[in-house]
Amino acid sequence: MKITKTKLVSAIVIVVALVTSYLFMGPQPNTPAKLPAPTTEAAGQQVEVKSQAAQQPDSSKAAPSAAQSSTDQPISTVKPTEAAPTQTPEPTKAVTAKESDKDSSKETPTPVVNQPAVNQPAANQEIDPKTGKDKYLTEPVPSGKPLPVEPQNIKISDKAMTATLSVTCLTILDNMKLLDKEKVELVPKDGVILPATKVTFYEGESVFNVLQREMKKHKIHMEFVNTPIYNSAYIEGINNLYEFDVGELSGWMFKVNGWFPNYGSSRYQLKEGDVIEWVYTCDLGRDVGDTYNAMGATKQ
Length: 300
What we know:
This protein is an alpha+beta fold. It has 6 helices and 7 strands. A hairpin with a 2-residue loop joins β4 (232-238) and β5. The N and C termini lie far apart (161 Å).
């Protein structure tokens, strides 16, 4: 192979270029080749991926679900058949945020039952300002006279007291012609069915309680009926002598210490030493001295 002048010159130039390049650049370290810079589109995708990763940490720190995050309207998990008992607040009292934290047993005072004060109206007894009557249509009680009490509110103690009781039908003696002939023999000749008798009663008892017990004790007939509208017992008959037996204005009445109460015998609470008189009237009380009730009040 012949080396021409041209080839020799080219080889020398190449060697010189290589040597010059080596001397100018120096030895190069063994480093990995750099990756080309990402394009704008690629960079945007990486930023988006990083943002999503920051918003989705591990499950232990995950955002609460809609049911858990709602505090204003919690979702009930109680089954209909296992619903908690409903608590009814007092209708006349607004409960504030502070009051709701208190013990409810301290918020609502326990009403006192069966312990009314003597000669005082029951707590639920309201007087109509227009008529002056209570809900049982009781006429206004005269000043200084005992107020009625309600039988269902009375607590009877074991404290024994005494009173006087009598039962008479003197007015029938003057009206025998109006009495049924079959009942004539029921009327005592002196008109006294039970003479004035000292009886024992217990604190809290009423006129009705005493009459019922003593009639049974002395084996004297007595019949009564409860009248819810007046919240009292009504005496229909004693010794088989009934209302209307001696005319349409006849029947049994009672008085205590000379006064004819304008309410029923089971609403009159007795006190020590009271004098109870049951009398039969043939003229709506006028013939036995009760002019007040004769004006329109009931016999019982």
